[in-house]
Amino acid sequence: MSRILLIGATGGVGHRLLPRLIAAGHEVTALHRKPEQAAELRAAGATPLQGDLMAMGAPEMTAAAKGHHVIVFSAGAAGSGLERTAEIDGQGPLKMIAAAKASGIARVYLVSAMPEAGRGKDPNPNFEFYMKTKKEADAALVASDLDWVILRPGTLLHEEEGGGVRLSPAIPYGSVKRGTVAAVLARLIDTPQIRREIFELTDGETPVAEAVAALVR
Fold it and tell me: What CATH number is associated with residue 132?
């Protein structure tokens, strides 16, 4: 099993992913911002590590990554302003890339967004900036020599896993439960032969295990 640094451990996807990783036998270091979150993370079986992505630079991220085999980046600014979007969704993955290289970590997983998000609605400059930032982070990771996997879910629903999925490099836009995103991520992490791929994800008809197994080349 692997030692995993989970960035965004208390977020909508991250807090659902954490128990799956622990149950699979992985050792998880859970990066969190608020001191009061540590006890709950420790009780869940993780090693809490306090750090604010708005303040952490590449050296601090590298120190956090030291000794791990895998980094998962599921953090996001969640519409909390342009500055936070630029730093968390934009610079965050770049710091992860630098930390992975400096720490000799090959495997990294990034939760991104489907490019069709928000299409058909009235233009929103903040949302357009968010999508541009996400795409730039994706491109930086693809350009690296790491064994990356980028997962692009559709509209995220505040629900646990349920039903099947649609998972492929390109699919029609749709919604997906946060719990399902966590389930797919956990399965991808436990299928390390899947590497250097971008996948889009929505709710669908195929069981998660079957959908991920079909991605193996």
Answer: 3.40.50.720
